[in-house]
Amino acid sequence: MNYGMIVYMLGWICLFEAMFMALPLMVAVIYQEPAGWAYLMVLVLCAVLGLLLTRRKVKNRKIYGRDGLVIVAFCWIVLSIFGAAPFVISGDIPSFTDALFETISGFTTTGSSILNDVEALSRANLFWRSFTHWIGGMGVLVFILALLPIKAGGAGMYIMRAESPGPRVRKLVPKIKTTAMILYAIYFGMTVLQIILMLLAGTPLFDAMVLSFGSAGTGGFAIKNDGLASYTNLQQAIVTVAMILFGVNFNFYYLLLRRKPRQALACTEVWAYLGIIAASILVITIQVLPRFETVYQAFHHTAFQVSSIITTTGYSTADFNEWNALSKTILVLIMFVGACAGSTGGGIKVSRIIILLKGVRKEVMRVCHPRSIKKVKMDGHSLEHEAVHSVYAFVIIYICIFVVSLLVITLDEKDLVTNFTAVAATINNIGPGLNIVGPAGNFSSFSDLSKFVLMFDMLAGRLELLPLLVLFVPSTWKK
């Protein structure tokens, strides 16, 4: 274990968090809010601590797979702890546990909240709350790899692989730094485009920015108590399309930019993702027609909710907790499916579902035809045996964490639907669940123990399980 490199990277995380804090500080100055002092204090603290930790030069900069997982896990934990401080210092969220829950929910792009009155927060805190989505969407360490003047050889690949969502992480170009810059350039460009479209649709600048941060990071923190229900149909439609686009594998956009449309359109995962969205919208629209005045309204709100849930964004324009059983069941199922690998969305990922189904088919065929040799293929390429088994391992670990989390939070004596969807909403980084944690509710009634379990689920879901689990393995800490 390279402890020196871990400390060094934590120092850079503190420095970058100090830089991030400057934005809500500017918002507080513009709106003349006292919350600005909280951000100034944390900014200075992070900057001083970051300078102290990065001052010592690390001789051994080699990072192996184990080091990359630990660095990612620690960096996200430190990022969340300091990120929660302004909420507590400003007094908007006095409880540190609640502030940490809200912050982890933000950075992991979950969108689950403990707030009963969102509109009571200062503009600075509302901005920071949504900006954490944008930071965590593509990954803060991916951002650092794009800007940091580190020459660590191939070390960046281990960090990027540990932080990026999905079963496979491939370099877009030979250099990791260039790959990270390309990803963030696409991410930044799409975010700016959505902000411009929201402004053209008549959205106030502040609202356009925070809603775009939530859509880009597929996070879902709203700044109004009614979610997005009070915005116009056009503004909601822009968010709907944006959520779907940010749920697509960013390799798809890279191939389009490189003028390789055939390769882009040959992506099985993207077509499966869009197919699931279309089928879900069709079935649910038919089911909820009696609840709306026109077919258009039923389609509009269904499309919004399906896009919000499958991309794990969590925005809402209607209380889908009141919809019929089939509609809610479909929404819960696509919670688990999630978006594409290599996107900002959460969930198990469409590519894993495809690989899992093809793997099952392969095993069935092997039983029927023992002498036949079948390989699992994706986009015309045969997958290595290890890649398929890593998907099996992921699903097994996922189920184990889900079951243990569900058992622990049942100590709060809430109903099964609330508990089940609370775990599903957090481990899949979605936000709202059903019943008490539905679109009109929140997670404030859970005990501190349950909140910490759900916080673990949010981090585990965003970091693809392994980085957090590695921290509990004794052999991890051996040099």
Question: Quick recap of the structure?
Answer:
Helix content is 65%, strand content 1%. By secondary structure, it is an all-alpha fold.
Low-confidence stretches: none
Reading the helices and strands in chain order gives HHHHHHHHHHHHHHHHEEHHHH
Strand content: under 5%
How helix-rich are the residues, as a percent range?
55-70%
Main sheet: strands, sense, barrel: 2 strands, antiparallel
* Shape designation: globular
**Class per helix and strand makeup:** mainly alpha
Q: What average pLDDT do the residues reach? A: 86
Termini separation (Å)? 4 Å
Please state how the strands of the largest beta sheet are arranged side by side: 1-2
Tally of DSSP helical segments: 20
Number of strands: 2
Report the C-alpha radius of gyration, rounded: 22 Å
Protein name: TrkH family potassium uptake protein
Describe the overall structure.
- This protein has 479 residues and is an all-alpha fold.
- The protein has a domain at 386-477.
- It has helices at 3-30, 35-55, 65-90, 96-107, 123-138, 140-147, 155-163, 176-200, 205-216, 233-246, 250-257, 261-265, 268-288, 295-310, 325-337, 350-368, 385-409, 416-427, 448-462, 466-470; strands at 377-378, 381-382.
- The chain has a two-stranded antiparallel sheet with strand order 1-2.
- Strand 1 (377-378) and strand 2 form a beta hairpin.
- The longest helix is centred in the first third of the chain and has 28 residues, at 3-30.
- The radius of gyration is 22 Å and the shape is globular.
- It starts with a helix and ends in a 9-residue tail after the last helix.
- The relative contact order is 0.11.
